[in-house]
Fold this sequence. Notes:
- The chain has a three-stranded antiparallel sheet with strand order 1-3-2, with no helix packed on it.
- The N and C termini lie far apart (32 Å).
- It is globular and about 30 Å long.
- The protein has one domain.
- With 89 residues, the protein is of the alpha+beta class.
- 20% of the residues lie in helices and 12% in strands.
- The chain has helices at residues 23-31, 48-56; strands at 37-38, 72-75, 82-86.
- The chain is built from two helices and three strands.
- The chain binds zinc ion.
- Zinc ion is lined by residues 38, 40-41, 76, 78-79, 83.
Amino acid sequence: MFLRRNFEIKEKIMDNPYKEGTLIYKDFNMLSDMQWHCTKCDLISGQAKTYEKMRDDGAKFYQNPKTKYYAEMIKCNICKRNTMHRKFI
Ligand SMILES: [Zn+2]
């Protein structure tokens, strides 16, 4: 069978371990595409402890090497402002 490599569908690489419908579940789902996500537009939980919990549970987040924050100031494509973004790595 001919494999169309350029058209491979990006699979979700992690199973969501959290209870369906919870904030942490929704944010995990959002982040599981491994792309940057705006903390204002994409991510529902405004609380850093939500992401601390994910890290405690084994999720790997991008960490800024200088600030050590698990977030980066990036211009958002949705709200067009510079906002903190988070990303799984
Ligand atoms: Zn935004």
